[in-house]
Automatic annotation (TrEMBL):
This is Uncharacterized protein. It comes from Paenibacillus marchantiophytorum. Keywords: Membrane, Transmembrane, Transmembrane helix. The chain crosses the membrane at residues 6-24, 36-55, 67-86, 98-115, 127-146. It comes from the Bacteria.
Amino acid sequence: MSLMAERMILVAVWGVSLIGLVLVPKRHRRKAQVAFLFQQFLTWILGLIVVQNGWLSYPLRELKHNFTSLTFEIMAYPTIAVYLNIFYPAGKRLGLRILYIVAYPAGITLLEIVIETYTELIDYHSWSWYWTFLSTWVTLHLSLIFNRWFFRENDAVGRFE
């Protein structure tokens, strides 16, 4: 894929993420802000660890001296966490809650596999798709738990009953 096409993908991800944030319903904005900032904090640190250990790399990135993906860790992934947090079916059937907490990381993983295969935006070294799935599952689940705790919501996020 050409450099121009890859840059267009990054711009498109920023655009879609910004539009997604603008479209958050007004009644959910406080919850969205907490989820967004928590996810940025978590993924920024974990992204630095992964890149510094050489498990994966981002050949095309936004900042010269920061070797992580600003687009993914600061914008796209936190935006995804926002939508998981505001639409998570707390108090609903166990099957539906499990579907939500598995579908989000599965979708992210599938997109990353396509991006890693067909572009130069990400290169796996000792990383694999299952690490992406596991890390996104854990961090999204932590985001749900933190958001429920922060807003003092008592539901079945942290336990499967």
